[in-house]
Design brief:
The chain contains 23 helices and 15 strands. It has 545 residues and is α/β, with parallel strands linked by helices. Strands 1-2-13-12-7-6-3-4-5 form a nine-stranded mixed beta sheet, with helices on both faces. The protein has a four-stranded parallel beta sheet with strand order 9-10-8-11, with helices on both faces. Helix 3 links the parallel strand 3 and strand 4. Helix 11 crosses helix 18. It is globular, with a radius of gyration of 25 Å. The chain binds 1,6-di-O-phosphono-beta-D-fructofuranose. The site of 1,6-di-O-phosphono-beta-D-fructofuranose has 13 residues, from loops.
């Protein structure tokens, strides 16, 4: 395989580890824990894994002398930079515990465990993937591990391969399911440990115990680089308004962090839109006002950052989507639907929803009615919010022009950044954090625990001062309604409007809207001065201040 010069040089990078993980490790067990809410219900659902203590790792003088074991690893959900380093850290940690330990990877996500697709990860394979982006070492998938027959199918192959522990690298749902699996195997006395690792570029798996999920750092730096380049282009040609949609499913952490890094003219935060009960027209009007204000200063250019999940946070759009879901799920003659679906839907919708539906550009109205997932829901991530907004802003400006309130030029460009950042070569932060998470997972396995998530804290300090340990997953649970049923889940972290990152943004955004205060972060640096290469995100810095 031909490799780039960076890949070759980067392969030799030795990730930094917390002091406690650099040699022999011992576990210090803290006091029993409780779930963040709904303690009684969660205790009942997890009688074997509830209340376990927090674990912190410290340097030890002596080795543990453990018998050889086999371990399995699974990558679950969307790619995030650093996944390969979690696996290489896990591999190195296991080999340090006992050179006869073996690691198996289940292929293409949790489905690999259920369908018995796996491969042994040997030193040669691991060496090919150190410090690289992507999940291609074993592939990933979105199969949910939640049913007893899947757990039993998994057990068959784990028993056959003599695997004593499985590490599941995933987001909030995958870690919730990891805990359900841990509880099941413990109740059945199958002797298999299950350990989770916090992954997702979305940054929404964080709480009092988990400071950040891995991958967020590299992904946002990659997007910020490209947005910075666009801003420089924009400030050079001075003729375009760039509407940039950013991945992140529901939470706006990615958009907010990019805004803090690049200082755009506008960044919409979905959580604020919901809190203020803003309508689509409110958002459009506020963008158009900024466009008009800049135009009056002769500045017919700018940048707008839009979080991927925005549509679902606009209360009126949410109501429209819910009604469309119901109408389209009804058995109706195909003839009625196909002849003039738009008029047919307008006649079926309630007055409020029909008005909103009629105001949408035709292509967006079509996306709302056609793109449905297997559960019958609109796939909001496929809606081109960036062109929806620019389209509606253009209409509003045209109206203002007619009325004599606006005289500028408005030429929009559209972008969507998501996949560009999910497999980027991990930044030093993600390379170090992920490798540390992997070694931490091996130490949790060595200590015989199950139902824990690997954790590394104190992340804004230099890596040797990071604190590694384990968090009982039940500690992060609360009960939430999912698909009509109350379920124990890890609470998804949305942008907090009283949190420091949002407040820092809100304090300066009016100035960024009027002036051209762009910052150009440039590409991630892997070699060079620490203040350039080892920066964490602004979100993490502000949150940990
Ligand atoms: P995870 O939550 O599984 O980490 O996935 C994150 C994500 O990249 C979201 O930002 C995005 O909405 C989604 O995955 C896209 O999914 P897919 O890869 O299936 O297109």
């Amino acid at each position: 395989m031909t490799k780039s010069a960076l890949q070759i040089a980067r392969a030799a990078y030795q990730p930094k580890l917390p002091k406690a993980l650099q040699g022999q490790v011992k576990a210090v067990f803290g006091a029993p824990t409780q779930s963040v809410a709904d303690q009684e219900e969660i205790k009942k659902l997890f009688p074997n894994t509830y209340g376990m203590p927090l674990i912190t790792f410290e340097a030890a003088a002596e080795a543990q002398n453990l018998p050889a074991i086999n371990v399995g690893v699974i990558l679950s959900g969307g790619q995030a930079p650093g996944g390969h380093n979690v696996i290489s850290g896990l591999f190195d940690g296991l080999k340090r515990l006992n050179p006869a330990n073996r690691l198996y990877g289940f292929l293409m996500g949790p489905g690999g465990l259920v369908d018995h697709n796996y491969k042994e990860l040997t030193a040669d394979i691991i060496d090919e993937y150190r410090n690289t982006g992507g999940f291609d070492i074993i592939g990933s998938g979105r199969t949910k591990l939640e049913k007893v027959d899947q757990f039993e199918k998994g057990f068959e192959i784990l028993k056959k391969l003599n695997i004593k522990a499985v590490v599941i690298i995933g987001g909030d749902d995958s870690n919730t399911n990891a805990c359900v699996l841990a509880e099941y195997y413990l109740a059945k006395k199958y002797g298999i440990q299950v350990i989770g690792c916090p992954k997702t570029i979305d940054g929404d798996l964080k709480n009092d115990q988990i400071e950040t999920s891995f991958g967020f750092d590299t992904a946002v730096k990659t997007y910020a680089e490209v947005i910075g380049n666009i801003q420089r282009d924009c400030n050079s040609a001075r003729k375009y308004w760039h509407f940039i949609k950013l991945m992140g499913r529901s939470a706006s952490h990615i958009a907010l962090e990019c805004a803090l890094q690049v200082q755009p003219n506008i960044c919409i935060i979905s959580e604020e839109v919901e809190k203020k009960d803003m309508s689509l027209d409110d958002i459009v009007t506020s963008i158009a006002r900024t466009v008009a204000h800049r135009a009056a200063q002769g500045l017919n250019f700018g940048t707008v950052l839009i979080p991927e999940g925005l549509i679902e946070f606009i209360p009126a759009m949410k109501r429209l989507i819910a009604e469309l879901n119901d109408i389209l799920a009804r058995p109706t003659s195909t003839h009625e639907r196909m002849v003039d679906q738009h008029s047919w839907l307008l006649s079926e919708l309630s007055k409020e929803n029909a008005e909103l539906f009629a105001s949408l550009p035709q292509n967006v109205a079509n996306q709302l009615t056609m793109e449905r997932d297997p559960h019958g829901n609109v796939q909001v991530s496929l809606i081109q919010t960036e062109s929806l907004l620019s389209n509606m802003v253009a209409r509003k400006l045209a109206q203002w022009k007619k009325e004599g309130h606006y005289t500028g030029k408005f030429a929009p460009q559209h972008h969507f950044f998501g996949y560009e950042g999910r497999c980027a070569a991990p930044s030093n932060f993600d390379a170090d954090y992920c490798y540390s998470l992997g070694v931490t997972a091996s130490s949790l396995i060595a200590n015989g625990v199950t139902g824990y998530m690997a954790s590394v804290k104190n992340l804004t300090a230099p890596a040797d001062q990071w604190v590694a340990g384990g968090i009982p997953i039940t500690m992060m649970f609360n009960m939430e309604r999912r698909n009509g049923e109350m379920k124990p889940v890890i609470r998804k972290a949305l942008v907090e409007l009283d949190g420091k990152p949002f407040k820092a943004f809100a304090a300066v955004r009016d100035q960024w809207a009027k002036e051209t205060a762009y910052v150009y972060p440039g590409p991630i640096q892997y070699f060079g001065p620490s203040e350039v290469c080892d920066q964490t995100t602004k979100t993490l810095k502000l949150e940990q201040e």
